[in-house]
Amino acid sequence: MIQKLRVRFIILAMSTLLTVLVVLVGGIDLASYRGIVAEADRVLSGENLGRVDKKLNNPGKEANGLFSQFSPDEHNYVRFFSVIMSQDGQVLDTQIPLGAIMASDEVSALAAKVFTKEADTGFQSIYRYSRLSDGDTVRIRFLDCGREISSFRQFLLTSVLLSAVGLLLIFAVVVYFSGRIVRPFAESYEKQKQFITDAGHEIKTPLTIIQADADVLEMELGENEWLADIQSNVRRLTNLTSDLVSLARMEEGGTPMELLEIPVSDVVAETAQSFHTLAQAQRKELQITVQPMLSMEADEKAIAKLVGILLDNALKYSPEGTAIGLSLCKHAKQLKLTVRNVSAVPLPEGDLDRLFERFYRADPSRNSQTGGHGIGLSIAAAIAAAHNGQIHASQPENGSLQITVTLPQRQRQTRKAQ
Fold first, then answer.
1. HEC assignment per residue over the chain
2. Please, what is the average pLDDT of the chain?
3. C-alpha span between 207 and 273 (Å, rounded)
4. Mean pLDDT: which of 47-56, 66-75, 202-211, 246-255 is highest?
5. What pLDDT was estimated at residue 30?
6. Torsion-angle region of residue 320: left (phi > 0), alpha (psi -120 to 50) or beta?
7. Which residue has the higher pLDDT, 76 or 6?
8. From CA 49, how far away is CA 78, in angstroms rounded?
9. Percent of the chain clearing pLDDT 90 (strictly above)
10. Of 78, 211, 232, 335, which is least packed with CB atoms within 10 Å of its CB?
11. Closest CA relative to residue 382, chosen from 193, 126, 172
C-alpha cells in the first residue's frame, strides 16, 4: 500500500509539472509563431509593398535599378515577390527582384497552388502569401519567411529538449524525496497495523473468558434472554477481532500463502453449494454457473474464503424473493469471478469503490442488524491483491450490485500476501 501511495504521489507530481510545462512552453512557442505570422501579414499588407508593386510595375525601370532606389529598410523586400493571375488561374505576370533566388516558373507553380486554396492568407511551404482580387485579375503576394521559420523551429526544438531534460531531472528529485515524504505515512500505517494485531491478540483472551463464563452460567441458570445476548455479542466481537487480525496480517505480508495448482472450479462450486441452505432459509434463489475444469495457482483456503465473503455479502444485503448469481469463467489468461445480487437500496456511483474500505457502509440500512462488520469486502480485496488480481464493483442495472474479481491463472512467483 505504501509503495502504491509513493507511486501515486510521483505520478501526480510529474503530471502536474508536465501540464505546467506544456502550458508554459506551448504558450511561448504559440506566441512566437503568432508573432511571425502577424509580422508577415503586416509586411504583406503594408504601404511599402504597395510602393514595391508600383515600382515593379514600372516598365521603364530595370529591377536592379528599381531596388537601388529603395531605402535601406526597403531592401528587406528582396524576399518579396508577387504574381498577377487571371480569374481562371492563368499567370499573367510575375514580379521577381533580381536578388531573389526563385525562378519565374517556380513562382508560377507556387502561385498555382495558392490559387486553388480557399484562404486568402496562409503559408505555402516557407512562403507567407496574401491574395487580393482586383477586377479581372488576382494579385498574390509572397514573402519568404524561411529565416523566421527556421529560427522558430530551432527555438521550438530547444525549448522541448530543455523541458525534457528539466522534467527528467525533476523526476529524479521527486523519486528521491518521495520516500521521505511518504515515510511518516508509512510509519503511521505500520503502527496502526501492528496495533490492530497486538490489540486483537489481547482482546481474544478476555473474550474467551467471557464466553466460558457465559456458558457456565447457562448451565447453572438455564437459558435466558440476557445470557443469549451476551453470547451473541461475544461471538460477533470474536469474529470481528479475528477478521481484523487476519486483514492486518495479509496487508503487512505476515500471512504466508501457499500458491499451488488447485482445481478452482471445484473449490468455487463446493463453496457456493454450502450457501444453498442459507439462501433457501432467506427465501432467495442462488444461481451458480461455473465453467468446469478450470485451474489456477492460488491458495485454496483463501479462494474459498473469497467466494464465501462475496456470497455472504450478497445474501445479507439483498431483499427476499430475489436471485443471487455467481459465475466463474475463463477470459484470456485470467479467471473472472462474478457475484451479482439485487441491492435493497441503490448505491451512489461514487460510493462503489468505497465498498472495499474498512467499516464503510453505503447507506443506513446496512447496519449491524445484518450481522456484518463492514470489513468483509476489505478482506476480499486483500485476497484478490495477494493473488495479483483486481476487484471492483459496478451497477449493471438500477438496483443491482455486481462485484467482479479478475485473477491470473499463473502467478509469477510464490509469495506472501501483501
1. CHHHHHHHHHHHHHHHHHHHHHHHHHHHHHHHHHHHHHHHHHHHCCHHHHHHHHHHCCCCCCHHHHHHCCCCHHHHHHHEEEEEEECCCCEEEEECCCCCCCCHHHHHHHHHHHHCCCCCEEEECCEEEEEEEECCEEEEEEEECHHHHHHHHHHHHHHHHHHHHHHHHHHHHHHHHHHHHHHHHHHHHHHHHHHHHHHHHHHHHHHHHHHHHHHHHHHHHCCCHHHHHHHHHHHHHHHHHHHHHHHHHHHCCCCECCCEEECHHHHHHHHHHCCHHHHHHCCCEEEEEECCCCCEEECHHHHHHHHHHHHHHHHHCCCCCCEEEEEEEEECCEEEEEEEEECCCCCCHHHCHHHHCCCCCCCCCCCHHHCCCCCHHHHHHHHHHHCCCEEEEECCCCCEEEEEEEEECCCCCCCECC
2. 79
3. 32
4. 202-211
5. 92
6. beta
7. 6
8. 11
9. 18
10. 232
11. 193
Q: Is the pLDDT of residue 330 over 50?
A: yes
Structure confidence at residue 409 (pLDDT): 86
> What separation, in Å, do the N-terminal and C-terminal C-alpha atoms of the chain show?
8
Q: Which residues contact 32 (CB under 8 A, 6 or more apart)?
A: 152, 155, 156
Q: In the structure grid, which three cell numbers stand for residue 117, read together? A: 486554396
Q: How confident is the model at residue 169 (pLDDT cuts 50, 70, 90)?
A: very high
Q: Give the pLDDT score at 148.
A: 87
With cut-offs at 50, 70 and 90, classify the pLDDT of residue 339: very high
How far apart, in Å, are the Cα atoms of 287 and each of 317, 335, 394? Answer: 16, 19, 19
* Number of other CB atoms surrounding residue 43 within 10 Å: 19
Pairwise CA distance, residues 238 & 248, whole Å: 15
φ, ψ for residue 54 (rounded to 5)? -65, -45
Q: How confident is the model at residue 64 (pLDDT cuts 50, 70, 90)?
A: very low
| Length of the chain in terms of residues written | 418
Nearest CA among 317, 253, 315 for reference residue 284: 315
Phi first, then psi: give them for residue 94, nearest 5 degrees. -120, 135
